[in-house]
Amino acid sequence: MAAPAHDLLRLATAGSVDDGKSTLIGRLLVDTKQLFDDQLEALGRGELAHVTDGLRAEREQGITIDVAYRFFATPRRSFIIAYTPGHVRYTRNMVTGASTADLAVVLIDARKGLLEQSRRHAHISALLGIRHVVAVVNKMDLVDWDEDAFGAIEAQWRRDSEVLGIPDSPAIPLSALEGDNVVSRSRRMPWWHGPTLLGHLETVEVARDRNYEDLRFPVQRVIRDGDFRGYAGQVAGGILRPGAEVVVLPDGARTRIERLETYDGPVEAAFPPMAVTVVLADDVDAGRGGVIVGAHDAPVAARSIDATVCWMGEQPLRPGSRYLLKHTTRRVRAGVERVEARVDVTTFDQRDTDELTLNDVGEVTLSLTSPVYADAYERNRATGAFILIDERTHDTVGGGLVRATRAGGADPAPRSRDVVWHPSHLDRDARWSATGNRGATVWLTGLPASGKSTIATALERELVRQGRMAYVLDGDNIRHGLSGDLGFDEASREENIRRVGQVARLFADSGVVALVSLVSPLAEARRAARELHEVAGLPFIEVFIDTPVHECARRDPKGLYARARAGRLRNLTGDGMRYEPPERPELIIRTTEEDVDGAVARLLEWLP
Amino acid sequence: MTIAQQTGELRLSHLAELEAEAVTTMREVAAELERPVLLFSGGKDSIVLLRLAEKAFRPGRFPFPVLHVDTGHNFPEVLEFRDRRIAELGEELIVASVQDSIDRGRVHEDPGDPSRNRLQTTTLLDALAEHGFDAAFGGARRDEERARAKERVLSFRDQAGQWDPRTQRPELWNLFNTVIRRGESVRVFPISNWTELDVWRYIQAEALEVPSIYFAHERQVFDRDGMLLAVSEFLQPAGGEPVMTDSVRYRTVGDMTVTGAIRSAARDVDAVIEETAASRVTERGQTRADDRTSEAAMEDRKREGYF
């Protein structure tokens, strides 16, 4: 089949009920003959604007509450339109629509000029890295097709788009209602010599906007078949060619691309956004979440990120908040270090703030428990973007654009350089899927006699009943063997926790749900255990068994509190020694308010 | 290469770009969810899905089985095609039957309504629960219908399989949030951004076989409410509905009792593309009685757990 000169343009537009967004889309669809008779008929009175109403709730309320998509094609190009409401309370929808767009259409009412809403949409488009923003000066019919009216708006638009740094930002006068300059050239604006909107959309060059310089190939999955081993993914940057020298992260192994496979056979080059399978010259240890990069332009392993975040969560983002962060094919935990400023998306001003609320856009610094290999968003939209996920509700609560990355904290290094991790020939996915297991560590922390072991054993029983591998690593039991050499001073306790953390990680890696029941009083030691898991890509669920000390002392099944009171036991946590309650555990169980079954049921929800 | 990958040095054709997007989506879901399944109806959209799965996972096997919800009112040509295609692929096929759901008393047929379209929702949800599937790939497209125009590529369902259009997760870039609780599931629509014409052009470019009923053939039909329905063991014309023999083809494949044919002389893919490009009526509007019941028919069925 000969190569057709037919490509795809994704465009985003936003607007409110009366500025003609829906009419414009309706006009594009009708005049390019994309609207079918039954759709026109279903519109009732045939009003163009109703083309974009999707859900019943929206029809009833007469508003657009979401992002919707329409499609049309001309002989030259296919188009995907994402359209959203333009009000400030739909900033998150605009951001979503703009995130995948090559081009944005900003609507301006010719009678009103550049109002808040248009400026907001232009700003969001620029922020999201859209390099082509068309100002559509609509309703020219209502200003008598006046050239000067258009000229004044166009001048204002030039100033704004320059401030925003939009490289390609033409303005086009038109009337969506009358159809002038949308698809057909207007006879009522003979002074206009520029293109029609469709003419512009059909010819604007957008393919060059992608990054073809820095080789970036995030691995989605490993494909195996007999001797075949390939890394499947979508090219996120650069041009991959057989023979290219590459580095495989996080491992750091250096090798060459042997060939680029597709279902249709090998290809000579792969560039964004192609989906291919990379075969490497050497046997290296790479898997999902890894990234193949150019040998000479590798990104830093970033543990700290400055980013612009568009906040979409109902609960505000504040310093100290923790989220799951998804970047390319990698998921890590992120904590908010600082909230620097909020950006006013209408005036483009920055204001000091210490939190971001729904629909805010702001600048934050995040610290990550394990590294991501990110680029600045303005350099590469694919490797500079991330989303934030709330671990409790599982909602997508933020969209992030990387501004700068830092190596930050170091990876936990092996004790001696001569000791290297011996990788098994089996990888975890293969092991887990063959045995039907999924490993994780549940770390129950709390005062002595708070109920940790009771809950751990009940959870163990339930998991095993469900046919899952689970095992309780009880603090006392570990001390009988593995930690039999340790005492109860602070250093020994810390060492005990380190050992339990390591054992739990091995259990989890093998597919077992490790249930750690350990006072583990110090936040730092628990953090180290968490890090150990996250670096290995294993789930770590910290559970705070929150029982008041007087209740623990009342229960006292082992008589510890009684002995402490009698002066026969020193260093009892909560009594003589400090306990640092977790600041942000995955789960808090208050045993005075909740029974064991309820606690187990909630814990099960957290397990993968 | 059957699809022209490049239109210029660094440009993909629109079909190649849509293909890359769909392949990436399928790989992402297969990697992040525990037990996906691919829903296969025997229709053109799910035929495209099977090819996309080959593109995503060959030379390996599919990391999921294929599930067909059999209404018992299928076109025999479609069932024959299904079995042959899955055998060619060497992948696992699971058939969930609406007749079984009826026999087990899970659903009841409406004596006044021969269609089993609504009943298959229960059969589907039961099958997903029975096998513990937490992700189901479907061939739905946003251009089909107004409610679908706003549905995400990943559509989350609660434990009863229901869709709530107000709590959809935002989808930014190509970064999917696949985190769910046990018992919840997600419907995945990798060809959300394809149009009917894109599907046909892809079938043409990939030389994919489709069931013979998509092409013009002689069939006994009768006119009911402006739709041409086939005479079959499941559906007979009422008195006053004259039967005619016509050259017809189908634009969609579904329950025989609600899927209408169109008069057509298009006997191959090229002719179908020509006809589709010139068509003035949507495929669902023309050939699916179930969507014409009310203006919000699709939205209601999706809320209940429909595909």
Helices, strands, pairings?
The complex is a heterodimer of chains A (608) and B (307).
Chain A: E1 7-15, H1 21-31, H2 37-42, H3 56-61, E2 68-73, E3 77-85, H4 91-99, E4 103-109, H5 116-127, E5 132-138, H6 147-164, E6 171-173, H7 197-203, E7 216-218, E8 221-225, E9 228-234, E10 245-249, E11 253-261, E12 275-280, E13 291-294, E14 302-311, E15 322-327, E16 330-343, E17 350-352, E18 361-372, E19 385-389, E20 396-406, H8 428-435, E21 440-445, H9 452-465, E22 470-474, H10 475-480, H11 490-510, E23 513-517, H12 523-535, E24 540-545, H13 549-555, H14 560-565, E25 587-589, H15 596-606
Parallel strand pairs in A: 1-3, 1-4, 4-5, 5-6, 21-23, 21-24, 22-23, 24-25
Antiparallel strand pairs in A: 2-3, 7-13, 8-9, 9-12, 10-11, 10-13, 11-12, 14-18, 14-20, 15-16, 15-19, 16-17, 16-18, 19-20
Chain B: E1 6-8, E2 11-12, H1 14-32, E3 36-39, H2 44-57, E4 66-70, H3 76-89, E5 93-97, H4 98-103, H5 119-131, E6 135-137, E7 154-157, E8 185-188, H6 196-205, E9 217-224, E10 227-230, E11 243-250, E12 261-263, H7 269-278, H8 283-287, H9 297-304
Parallel strand pairs in B: 3-4, 3-6, 4-5, 6-8
Antiparallel strand pairs in B: 1-2, 7-8, 9-10, 9-11, 11-12
Helix pairs in contact in B: 1-2, 6-7
Outline:
The complex is a heterodimer of chains A (608) and B (307). Chain A has 608 residues and is α/β, with parallel strands linked by helices.
Protein described:
The complex is a heterodimer of chains A (608) and B (307). With 608 residues, chain A is an alpha/beta fold. Chain A has helices at residues 21-31, 37-42, 56-61, 91-99, 116-127, 147-164, 197-203, 428-435, 452-465, 475-480, 490-510, 523-535, 549-555, 560-565, 596-606, and strands spanning 7-15, 68-73, 77-85, 103-109, 132-138, 171-173, 216-218, 221-225, 228-234, 245-249, 253-261, 275-280, 291-294, 302-311, 322-327, 330-343, 350-352, 361-372, 385-389, 396-406, 440-445, 470-474, 513-517, 540-545, 587-589. In chain A, the strands form four sheets. Chain A has a seven-stranded antiparallel beta sheet with strand order 7-13-10-11-12-9-8, with no helix packed on it. In chain A, helix 9 crosses helix 15 (596-606). Residues 409-417 of chain A have low confidence and may be disordered. Helix content of chain B is 32%, strand content 17%. In chain B, strands 5-4-3-6-8-7 form a six-stranded mixed beta sheet. A four-stranded antiparallel beta sheet of chain B has the order 10-9-11-12, with no helix packed on it. In chain B, helix 3 (76-89) links the parallel strand 4 (66-70) and strand 5 (93-97). In chain B, helix 6 (196-205) packs antiparallel against helix 7 (269-278). Chain B starts with 5 loop residues before the first strand and ends with a helix. Chains A and B meet through helix 2, strand 2, strand 3, helix 4 and strand 8 of A and strand 1, strand 2, helix 1, helix 2 and helix 6 of B.
